[in-house]
Structures are given as structure tokens and as C-alpha cells.
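Issue 218. Parser rejects a valid record. Input:
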Amino acid sequence: MSIFLSIGNFVSTIASVELISELSGVFDLEPSFCQVILVLKTENEEERDDELASHQKKTTGQPGRKYFTMVVVLGTLFLGYIAIANDLKPIRIGSKAIDTLALSFNLQKPFYVVVIDAGSTGSRVLAFSFHESILNGNLVLDNELFKEVKPGLSSFADRPEDAAKSLTTLLNDAKAVIPQSEWPHTLLTMKATAGLRLLPEHKANGILEECRKLFQTSGFQVTRNSISIMEGTDEGIFSWFTVNFLLDRFNTLSSQSTVAALDLGGGSTQVTFQPDSGQAKKLEKHVYSINVFNHNMSLYTHSYLGMGLMAARKAILTYDMNLDDANVKGPIEIHSECINPIVSREWSYQGRDYIVKGPTNGTYKVVKTQNFAGGDENKPIVRFAECLKIIEKYVGSLTEKPMGLKDHEVYAFSYYFDRATEVALIDPFLGGMVQVSSFLKQATETCDYPNTDQPFMCLDLTFIYVLLRDGFGLEPATKLHLYKKINGHELSWALGAAFNVLQNGL
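Output the parser choked on:
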């Protein structure tokens, strides 16, 4: 706080209200900052100003004006330095700029948190660096590292030692960006999601125990509670926090200012938003009281286990098949209405191998060719109507739907983003906004195209559309914001988990 006041006093000494007004026009000063500058003058300062004015009347004006001009120039150069050093466009001499300036002068020491996201399809490390704001004590995110390895830990269900070894590279990546002197003070936590939730308890615990052994030798700060299977509720809340924090939506903390977060993972999917009072009463079973930056609020979140993209894909592909026989060895051959007749592809999920094919009696469709010769071509297609029925039946098993979601601004990420980029609905680097109906349009087109490079795309897009429409009650015209990053930071639950660890400990 002392730096903020000293800068304010400096400017109030060298400039009158008129000069501040001119500077605010040149430097795009925040109004709140200008107001602080103006009120910083105390009664004693006003008395000194009167004495100074009286003294100036008795002396020659020229030296005083030169001195005044010199101070103004130095002040302007100082403000310019702030802008250049922090790449502010336009210059915003407000709380963020001052806070960043304090950090650049080493007045604030950065600290670190390492989060391992042990998902069903892969493991990721996110190494965050933070500092405390010099103005209000809030945590400020500076940088992050994101790295990923595949497959997920659940793929090593019968080889727990190998599961732990798969994380070694991620830990080394984190060590490379964190000063070694800070390792003993850096909190390390691993949260496993639906992949381990779906495993038998003894197998999941075996993997967790091997990971604990590895983490004890990492050099980072760990406890026995550092490693756990995360509840779906926490996953949803942390994801929602990440999105709204990066969007800077925590100014008023009202249900109108925050956005809904949809996270589509491999084994489960989460829906989280801030309900209004009427919605909260209808959804009370899944409404939780949380504290965000010392503000209490109610938040709806529901994690739907089995509605993740990979879990749903497996259920849809094996529709009407009995796979409970534990004695089955080797790949299991399955034929699905949601797969093109010419496809034959190996696929693994939850430690079981499959050979996925289209229906035995496939359907063909005559389409116009795009070459100069013209003519017709008989192409194998997915019977979309039949595939749609299977998916609608599966999604129809979803209960306790998120009523009121459609009334909120919706941000969707993870597999929502991935599939949208793979069929060119949005830019893979910039992200974008699409209507729910765009997934249906793209699904019908994809199902008519025999693409062996993306054999599951027809199924995946159709499932996403039905999940959003039937499962979550969104209208076809509802707009979705699809992003992988916001302001250069990954959209995942890991950032929310890092804040939670810093505030509450491991």
C-alpha cells in the first residue's frame, strides 16, 4: 500500500487538477486512480500549498516554472517507464500496473504450486507461479507451465508402479521452471478424476499409493493428503472458478456477472453455474455454499459420471452387448450403428481392448462427386437416424438435469473444444463462439463421410449435441463460448485447485 500512496503523493505534488486531467487523457488513467490522487492531500498539505503560493509571489516566477517543468517531465518519464516495462496498451496507471511494477522491482516474491491433473485419458502437470497483490493481498497469477502425457493412470490398472512412473516426466518438467531453492516450499498435489473413480477401489488405491511413494522423492512439499481421487463436485467448482477468474468476473459476484462452465472430460462431465434464488430452490440438492475472495455465495454444480466422452463412447459402441464376462481375453469385436461400414479400428478404454467396426449390413448413399468428370458415387454412410436413437436412449438415462442453465452465458471446454476444432467449427488457437445446432449440422455431414482417420467423429459430435440439447436443456440456438485458453492460461480445474491449496493447505 505504501508504494501506491507514494506514487499518488508524487503526482499530486507535481500537478494541479488541470494537469492531472491532461495526464489522464494522455496516459488513460483509471478514474479511481485519479480520484485517489486528488483526495490524498491532507489539511497540512493544503497549508503547505498556501505557504508555497505565498513564497512564489515573492520570488521570480521563472526558476519556479523551470523547476515545475522539470518535475513534470521526470514524472511523465516515470509513468512512461511503467508503461514500457509492463507493455501496457494503453497505459493503465491503476492497481494492476502498480502491482506489476512492485513485482518487477522485486518488492514481491513469487511462490509456486504444482498440480497434477490425473484424468481418464491423460495426466497433465500445471506449475503455477503467483504473488500476493501489494494493494489488497489477493493472489495474482503470473505464469504457468502446462505439459501432458498419455495414457491416463487408469490404463495401468494392473501395473500401479508403471502408473507412477508415467508421472516422472511431468515432475521433471515442473522442476525445470521452479528454482530449486523453492522446491521445499512448493506445494505439490495430485487430483485423480473419473478414470480412477470408475476403477475397482483396490486398484485405484494401489495406483495412488505408488504415486505417493514417487512424490515423497520429488523434493516438493507433500503430505499424505496431497494425493487423492477428487470428488466430481470439487472438479466442477474448481473449473467454474478458473473460467470466471480468468474472465475477471468476480467484481460483483452476482449470478448475472459470472458465467456457467461446462467441462467435458473422458469419464465424466460437469455443469456449474451461479443460480438465482428461484433456481437455487429447485436445484437445492446440488447447490453448495462457497467462499470466493471473502464473499459467500451459492453455486450449483453436478458431475455426471459416465457422461464423459470416452465413457459415453464405450457405452454407445457396446449398446445391447453384455461385456460383464470377466473371462473374456483379447480384443472384443463390436459392431456399431454409429460407425461407418468400412471402418475397422482398434480402441482401448479402461484397460480393455476393442476392435470397432460398422454394422454388418451397411448402408450406402449415392452422392455427387466433386471432380471435373462429374457423375455419382456410391459411398458407405452411417445410418444417422439409427445412431441418434441409441445416443438419445443413453443420454435419456441422465437424471437431475441442470434446470436454468440456458439462462446463463455458457463457456465450454475440454472435449467440447477439441471436437469443435477438429471439424473446423472454431479456430484451434483463438477459440470462438458457436450455436448448439452447429454440432448437429456437423454431425450429419460427418456421418455421411467415410473418414477412417476420424472413425469416431460421427458418434462424438452426435453425442455432444444430444447431451447439450436433451441432457442439459439448451436450445439449438444457444451460443457456446469454446476456448482452450483465456489470456494465455489453460481452462481446467487445476487453477481453481491451486487457489484452494494455497488458501486452505494440503
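Fixed in the parser; the record now loads. The radius of gyration is 29 Å.
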